[in-house]
Amino acid sequence: MTKAEHDDDRALEALFARARSHPPEMPEQLLARVLDDARHLQPTRAGSLLGGWWRMLGGLPGLGGLVTATCVGFWLGVAPPDGMPDLADQILGQQVVMDETAPDLSGFGWDSEEG
Amino acid sequence: MRSGPACLAGPVALRPEPMRHFPPDPAPDAEALLLARYAGGDAAAARLLAAQLAPRLFAHAVRVLGDGHEAEDVTQEALLRLWRIAPDWRAGEAKVSTWCYRVVANLCTDRLRKRRSVPLEDVAEPEDPRPDAAQQLQQRARVDALQAALQSLPDRQRQAVVLRHIEGLANPEIAQILDIGVEAVESLTARGKRGLAAALAGQKEALGYET
């Protein structure tokens, strides 16, 4: 860097420093207009809660996947493929028989011991 | 663009603002937290965020455009877009201030391009001769030697020099804002400083510094 370039650099730095310390003054009405826009566009709390759930589900693609999975599950339940056991029939159509045997209390032998 | 609801109805020439990929900033973005609070319905968050961002964006727009009225419109438009995108803001991808600077930079570029395409004789005379705050600011800017020298630079050089040497941003952030590489930022600022030095040559004494 030549001496002239060095001098230019120093001079520019002084001007930049002055510009940094004296930023353009922002009109107060501008802030008022900006806040007015913010008020008009601010989501409501209820809307943001719904929006939160919607985003958690993955939005429209997520909802599409959820609906598809539900439909496939329902169809598999109604008309299962040949190789698949019909769980609905097994559960609803099977007769359950419970054979309850009473304990043989005579096995203790107390009655024969007492005569 | 002056009143809130009216400006919402007009068409918005939204340019997509995808950010050049850089490693995410590990420091928590306080402005992103405020934006999330705004999106959650907290009205105070908007006031805090606007108080932090608006003066910086306005200052940048004034330096680049050299016109207070236009800088006001650009600042309002940039923040309007921020309020709109707030519910969909993805934290961690870009800093809120970087995103806003990028919108301001694009809006300034659009306006500077339009200015060049409008013949001087078609520019309307100002309606009100009384100087308001923005006009006073513009007059002050006109007598500011640095501002005058900045106006002599090509648009991109001016934006890079203002962001680097007046706003004090780091080169990687400027690269994101201007959607260029870091080396290109270095080149723009170096050429910009040479251009400024040439424009200010001969005014050193008048500007109050000795060599």
From the structure above, extract its key features.
heterodimer; A: 115 residues; mainly alpha; 6 helices; B: mainly alpha; Rna Polymerase Sigma Factor, Chain: A; Arc Repressor Mutant, subunit A; 2 domains; globular
Provide a concise account of the structure shown.
The complex is a heterodimer of chains A (115) and B (211). Chain A has 115 residues and is mostly helical.
Structural overview:
- The complex is a heterodimer of chains A (115) and B (211).
- Helices cover 66% and strands 0% of the residues of chain A.
- Chain A is built from six helices and no strands.
- Chain A is an all-alpha fold.
- Chain A has helices spanning 3-21, 28-41, 45-56, 59-78, 87-93, 110-113.
- Chain B folds into two domains: 23-117, Rna Polymerase Sigma Factor, Chain: A (Orthogonal Bundle), CATH 1.10.1740.10; 144-203, Winged helix-like DNA-binding domain superfamily/Winged helix DNA-binding domain (Arc Repressor Mutant, subunit A, Orthogonal Bundle), CATH 1.10.10.
- In chain B, helix 3 (43-65) packs parallel to helix 5 (96-117), helix 4 (68-85) packs across helix 5 (96-117) and helix 8 crosses helix 10.
- Chain B is globular, with a radius of gyration of 18 Å.
- At the A-B interface, helix 1, helix 2 and helix 3 of A face helix 1, helix 3, helix 4, helix 6 and helix 10 of B.
Order of helices and strands of chain A: HHHHHH
Taken together, the total number of domains of chain B comes to 2
* Cα shape of chain B: globular
Give the proportion of residues in helices of chain B: 55-70%
Oligomer: heterodimer
In this structure, how is the largest beta sheet of chain A organized? none
How many DSSP helices of chain B?
11
**What's the CATH architecture name of the largest domain in chain B?**
Orthogonal Bundle
Main β sheet profile of chain B = none
